[in-house]
From TrEMBL:
Residues 4-108 form the Rieske domain. This is Rieske 2Fe-2S domain-containing protein. SUPFAM superfamilies: ISP domain. Gene3D superfamilies: Rieske [2Fe-2S] iron-sulphur domain. GO terms for molecular function: 2 iron, 2 sulfur cluster binding; metal ion binding; monooxygenase activity; oxidoreductase activity, acting on paired donors, with incorporation or reduction of molecular oxygen. Keywords: 2Fe-2S, Iron, Iron-sulfur, Metal-binding. Pfam families: Rieske. The keyword Nucleotide-binding does not apply.
Length: 136
């Protein structure tokens, strides 16, 4: 599994997103209340650029005559036809068991990079001359 640095936490503040291209895929990275989520930037309905859609909340189960709104900042709405997806797991709101958008693991931290490996050769100093030895 390849890991890619997409930016620093101060570049994607709560409620913001960043769309990046990784390994030929367009992916939206969202900061939802301080937790980061990544989804493929393609609606499964007609491949609209999903991540340019509006992020909002949704109505919650409630008693008849009541209107409860919640989950603000967790629901991504497709800009073309209004299909809604849960950013926390990629599932659609209308049919979560059969329709979803691909999600990707996101972590915050430091990537341990290996220092570049350089090919080295022994060096000897003889009679004020510098000599490099290459053994093949």
């Amino acid at each position: 599994m390849a890991k890619h640095i997409v930016g620093n936490t101060n570049e994607i503040l709560p409620g913001q997103k960043k769309i990046v291209s990784l390994e030929g895929l367009s992916i939206g990275v969202f900061n939802v209340h301080g937790t980061y989520y990544a989804v493929k930037n393609s609606c499964p309905h007609q491949q609209a650029p999903l991540c340019v859609g509006k992020v909002s909340g949704t109505t919650l189960p409630s008693k008849p005559g009541e209107f409860l709104y919640g989950r603000e900042g967790e629901i991504l709405r497709c800009p073309w036809h209004g299909w809604e997806f849960d950013l926390t797991n990629g599932h659609s709101l209308f049919d979560p068991n059969r329709c979803w958008v691909k999600t990707y693991e996101v972590e915050v931290g430091q990537v341990e990079e290996e220092p570049p490996k350089l090919e080295t050769y022994p060096v000897n100093v003889e009679e004020e001359q510098v000599i490099v030895s290459i053994n093949r």
